[in-house]
Design brief:
43% helix, single chain, alpha+beta, 107 residues, three-stranded mixed sheet, GMP Synthetase, Chain A, domain 3
């Protein structure tokens, strides 16, 4: 009985940590979408947003966010790294590394 209670307690803690990670990732996705919602970024499309954690444990803090974008405008893509870094750092209350990469598609 004691073993079963201990396993249930551990399972509850792991589920709680996973729920926190999911909530953080949803917050990151919303912040990224908000940055690119304006008309100034109509040529930018979000491809993926990925959060990287410090290890395999569900208790690890997020260490980095990689935002992959596509750009269909003329010239160079906009410099958005600092804006995303500021926005995501403020949202999470932590110092995380933000990477932005643009992909090119052939038509």
């Amino acid at each position: 009985l004691l073993t079963a209670v201990a396993l249930l307690a551990i399972g509850g803690v792991v589920v709680g940590a996973s729920v926190q990670q999911i909530a953080y990732e949803q917050q990151v996705n919303q912040e990224v979408e908000d940055v690119f919602a304006g008309d100034e970024y109509e040529s930018v499309e979000i491809v993926t947003t990925r959060v990287r954690y410090g290890g395999i444990s569900p208790f690890q803090e997020p260490q980095a966010v990689t935002v992959t974008l596509s750009y269909t405008g003329d010239g160079s893509p906009p410099q958005v790294g600092d804006q995303l870094d500021e926005r995501l750092g403020a949202a999470g209350g932590q110092d995380i590394r933000v990477r932005v990469q643009f992909v090119e598609y052939q038509q």
